[in-house]
Amino acid sequence: MTTLLLALAVAYLLGSLSGSLLLGRLHGVDIRTHGSGNAGGTNALRTLGWRFALAVVAIDIGKGALAAALGWSWHAPAAPFDAQAQALACGMAAVAGHTWPLFFGFRGGKGAGTLVGALLVAWPLAVAPVLAVWLLVLVASGYVGLASMLAAATLLPLAWLLPGSGRAHELFALAAAAFIVFTHRGNIGRLRTGTEPRFERVRVWRRRDSS
């Protein structure tokens, strides 16, 4: 249990290394004071362009993957849970750190990129369907937040359908989906009022309909 707590603490600290805020300091910008005020990849794109956003997303995905790998490698053989379960738990700890970063006043991003990084290591079979749902919703609607929420919700059926899944995957899927919906609660409010901004350039289906 001590090993698990240590792994969770380190994973949270890794998650607290916010890509947008660290790179923003190099540019003399705190993106939380611009755009939506969120320290995530979408606001990074709107604030400083795609090159900056790409670097931000790479860091955020990378730290999620590193946290999950750490959880896997630090698993104690005598623990009452397997290494994958610990990797999933550490992935969620990193997502929490990204959202409430210790080093940046507990004001971070929404956790979607870091969650993908954790999945790449701890539950790789889930990555393709999750990304497929995210991309499909994004090109159909132009709403990044909606795409992120529905992609995270995809983990719930995957926890029952994918081979090798068990109770740890079910708990992780429930926690991850609920967490992503919670961090996107502002997006839900804007969707209801019709004020949620779209990325019109990625709405492929609308382009085809209007051409």
Task: Report strand %.
Answer: under 5%
Percent helix among the residues? Answer: 55-70%
Element string (H = helix, E = strand): HHHHHHHHHHHH
Structural class: mainly alpha
| Largest β-sheet summary | none
Residue windows where pLDDT falls under 50 for at least 5 positions: none
pLDDT averaged residue by residue: 90
Number of domains: 2
Q: What secondary-structure arrangement, pairings included, does this model have?
A:
Elements: H1 2-15, H2 19-26, H3 41-48, H4 50-73, H5 83-99, H6 112-122, H7 127-141, H8 144-153, H9 155-161, H10 167-183, H11 185-193, H12 204-210
Account of the protein in words:
The protein is mainly α. The chain folds into two domains: 122 residues, no CATH class; 88 residues, no CATH class. Helices cover 70% and strands 0% of the residues. Helix 4 packs across helix 6. The protein is globular and about 50 Å long.
